[in-house]
UniProtKB/TrEMBL annotation:
InterPro entries: Fe2_transport_prot-B, Fe2_transport_prot_B_C, FeoB_GTPase, G_FEOB_dom, Gate_dom, GTP-bd, P-loop_NTPase
Compartment(s) where it occurs, according to its Swiss-Prot or TrEMBL record: Cell inner membrane; Cell membrane
Family label: Belongs to the TRAFAC class TrmE-Era-EngA-EngB-Septin-like GTPase superfamily. FeoB GTPase (TC 9.A.8) family.
UniProt keyword terms in alphabetical order: Cell membrane, GTP-binding, Ion transport, Iron, Iron transport, Membrane, Nucleotide-binding, Transmembrane, Transmembrane helix, Transport
Membrane topology listed for this record: Multi-pass membrane protein
Transmembrane segments: 283-306, 339-363, 383-405, 417-443, 455-478, 515-535, 650-672, 684-705
Its job: Probable transporter of a GTP-driven Fe(2+) uptake system.
Gene3D superfamilies: P-loop containing nucleotide triphosphate hydrolases (3.40.50.300)
UniProt source species: Flectobacillus longus
Domain spans labelled FeoB-type G: 4-171
Record CDD domains: FeoB
Name under which the protein is recorded: Ferrous iron transport protein B
Amino acid sequence: MKKSPKIALIGNPNAGKSSLFNSLTGLRQKTGNFPGVTMDKLIGKWNLETGTEAEILDLPGIYSIYPKSVDEQVVINILANPQHPDYPDMAIVVADASNLKRNLLLFSQVRDLGIPTVLALNMIDVAENSGIVINSFKLAKELNVEVAEVNAKKGIGLNGLRLAVNKTLEQRFNSNDSLPVEYSPELIDEIKEQYGDTDDYHALLWLSEHDNLKQFNTEQRVGFDKLQEKYGWNSKKFQAQETVSRYAVLNEIVDGCLHQIPVEDEPVKTWTDRLDKVFLHQFWGYFVFLGILFVMFQAVFTWAAYPQDLIDNGVAWLNQYLKDTLPESQLVNLLTDGLIAGIGGVVVFVPQIVFLFLFISLLEETGYMSRVMFIMDKLMRRFGLNGKSVVPLISGVACAVPAIMSTRSIGSWKDRLITIMVTPLMSCSARLPIYTVLIALVVPEKSTLFGIFSLQGVALFGLYLLGFGMAILSAWILKVVLKAKERSYFIMELPSYKGPRFKHIMISLLNSTKAFVFEAGKIIVAISIVLWVMASYGPGNAMQEAEQKVKTENPTLTGADLENKIAAQKLESSYAGHFGKVLEPAIKPLGYDWKIGIALLTSFAAREVFVGTMSTIYSLGGEVDDENTTVMNRMRAEINPETGKPMYDAALGFSLMIFYAFAMQCMSTLATTYRETKSWRYPAIQLVYMTTLAYLSAFIVYQLLK
């Protein structure tokens, strides 16, 4: 097999780069981090020809090679450094055919860096609908590169793109012979002499962006500063002149290759125009957005109920089958009461997480998410954020880790920091299993609002709105505390509405769900084993004494009732029980007992562990006759020893929900905040303020409702 060429997908935001990546690679994708950077990169395999597979790298969207935000800096650190591990053998620049002039600026810069380049004209159908006809053959000749017309969403034109890529890899075009900008040859010679032989455009890029390029150390950056001073070099002035010069050349080329069919004097209203009259309306825009969110959470709760019940019953059946089939031993107990009980407690909520990711993918695919950013910008600015903060906040509904990393597109450091600090308040998918269990315990299943909407779905929607409300309130407080005078601007292009391509959605859905299950699974397996050991063993003869105590105090008790009493007493006497008892005084004002205390503590590794922990605790604790009973039924059967009433009443249930809505219980999120801010100060502040907020809010709710 030939060596796998490395191909970078590069393009402006909304040019269809991600759609093309999905069309080329299908399910053969993996996620990693860029070397030295905590930022996800997508890598996939694409069959170029028999025996040759290309490695496709999907880079963040950029407008030019002069970065304005952190994610753009990632791209330039690759393209500016031929020694970088991700430096491509060639590039496919994806351009929006309906806005060709603007998209060709980036193309010309990438080509002039000496990287063999293919131009992929995407959205040809959109261009034709606007009366734009492009002569691709003439354009290829003028630009001296291969040009392929594609429709990334429908997977059209991929064979033509494959031929163009193979031809480019064979011929290795070198297109930076003459740059459309004036510069000093003496300056270039000095750069090459001091920093190594390279082409002229790389040398100019190094000089302009050396402060943003990680390949240079402090001493080398000082050297670039001295060269700028010696030759009177002004980076901003050079970049402006270069951009003007490039557009002058590109405009002439495009005018000769593009034909605009005359349209009527009265422009035809497109679907995008019609929909935007409603979706971007200063009142109805917000109303529609809230309506979409409401339907989304109704669906998450109601549609997922059927597959959820199947999984729930299946896990319970498997657990009981293994107990009945395998010989009784501690290893079998570990497998059933530890691993399967813990993992099953999370796997059962996969359907809800799938529906959540599905709705988010649909919003992104159709182009509606950009409208949300636009209409929310005015509101967000009052709280110290901007429209670009909406994407991390909404992404936080899925997971706070990638959401915090997506703040790199926010140019203002102050806006970015505030967004990072408040994003974990958005209710992520890890909280969903907890909400589901607790809502099912305290909100009647058949109760409805107006006879249509499930009250359980309304409660879930309320929790997500509560998280958003607290996030923007916290942002406003941080805006007052942080006295930075930096002003931020919100500029974005609204893409046209597009029908979702379900193949792409399914790929995204599979990758997101798989990542959630396996990432959560690692933590749950480890914690389930540790918890089972702590709950199965105790100090000294504590476990034997617990059994003897129950038999002495209940001489008439026999059978399952006796076994349940013994199991509950053993759990209380175990290491886990002792640990929970130490925590109990601190959490007693919230209505929590030592069992909930154990779950709270384990949840600080990851929130979703709460359900797995409760599954393990109640599996070991007995208390009900039916071994096949699921965690929800076991919690429902739990009796408060002080009142003799059900433990999980409205006061305790809503108190726990509020605690989990606000508490910072995710080590991965804290680690990501540290990596993004380069300081432990901010994750420490996050942990303290969110935990305090959670405790006080849960206390107030419990005291009001008890």
